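Input set for joint prediction.
Command: fold jointly, output tokens.
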Amino acid sequence: MPQTPAALRENHPGAEWWRTAVIYQIYPRSFADASGNGTGDLRGVTAHLDDLVSLGVDAVWLSPFYRSPQKDAGYDVADYRDVDPLFGTLDDFDEMLAAAHARGIRVIVDLVPNHSSDQHPWFQEALAAAPGSAARGRYLFHEGTGAHGELPPNNWESVFGGPAWTRVTEPDGRPGQWYLHLFDPGQPDFDWSNPEVQEEFRSILRFWLDRGVDGFRVDVAHGLIKPEDFSDHLPPIDREATELSLQDAPYWGQDGVHEIYRDWHRVIAEYDGDRALCGEAWAPTIEKTAMFVRADEMQQTFNFPYLVTGWDAGELRGVIAESLAAYPAVGAPATWVLSNHDVIRHASRLDLPPGGRHDEGLGPLSPVKPDPVSGLRRARAASTVMLALPGSAYLYQGEELGLPEVIELPDEARQDPSWLRTGGERYGRDGCRVPLPWVAAAPAYGFSPDGASWLPQPAEWAALARDAQEDDPDSTLWLYRTLLATRRAEGLGASALEWLDGYGDDVLAFRNGNITVIANLGDRSITLPSGTVLVASAPGVPAGGAQLPVDTAVWMHAG
Ligand code: NOJ
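tokens >
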């Protein structure tokens, strides 16, 4: 049942909402466009809140909508306390927040503390100031190497490709210092050892907490503190490495980051309503990921080791078991996730061979392409497994429609800085960011009133539009609704998992509370135990069905 706004402000020590919540990620520019300029906005979010109520989510997380030149789709913030006109106004935000709370939906906003935009007044001030000045001290300006400082200070690479340093022209016109940007040059990294930076972010947290937000998703949570000596990355970064091993670079996961989250823990604890911090903390192991959610730090951290695990029963069981040992050991819930705005959508990814980097995207010339039918079948099974796991889960907008990665985007439409900075070597993340289809027969599938869309939507998406799925009980939309309603009714988020053996190496089988979950990841049908099938990820498994086809998962009342 939806909670009243007053109930949302109560505290429940040990039974806080975020321990079990299903949280829906809204990527505002691609969710719904009320203004008609082709980019989604906050009024578009408000207009569709009832659709999220009918889906059955507990909360939403909104990716950045702050003032920004949009060099990295808003993850380059020029003013942390205002809404970019592209997305609306602060009043639109307040209205959206109140409307969400009135429906019992909590709201988490994105906080981008590792870097600002190069258009942030502090960075502009730093550029105009002298080397060694207090203004430069808020960022990471260093002298170059080489006889005349013409080489970068070290060999660190930007996540988006190319060097992580850019040289500035000093106010007197001469080439001067270099500044660090682990991402785009338009995203200079802050110096988090500077107390002024620390105080500014406490104040930004309070600004949004005072407005009533329920928490923050913390961008690049593993990257804020840099090693003091700024020495080279040795051996130099291996581009072929997997996503998780890339996290071994010296600028990720420094111990000092945990001090920052202890500080923020104290800030949010001053507020009512069980506010929460969720870390985007990429770490090489589950143990290291779990360190971000020790009792005095954040409340949640995305389980990326789970996200990058391929469609393999043994590996999935391993990562789930390891997670269920590591998170409770620090008193935290596991936070499951299969898709977000940075990785290939799981309706495509799960049909790709294992390994590889999921932020590199897919495009017309990609050497391997997923099969959409098998990808969707696996995605539905994977979500059926995920939503039965104890803890919290994040959904990414459009996965409830079974949207695949868009592969055939024209080059000229692509906007991801990693596509631009690698000269097209990496397709990047635009393929998972295409605006949502709401109405099959409407212009831009109802995303925008006049048919504008900042990325083109594929013709096949008419069949996936939300209204087209509404009347089809076998649709992905209805699968998600049923899973979420059953999860809530059975209290799966708060229960405990017990593995069931004897089904073979290609099968994941466990019990959570009264629900038995069986997923067949092998290449032949298996026989189900006796009992009643409550939910099946694919159509055609009868309620008393004895056979479970390949790439299918069920929730059962065994008996
Ligand atoms: C992680 C965000 O999810 C991603 O979209 C962004 O490009 C980087 N952090 C830099 O802010």
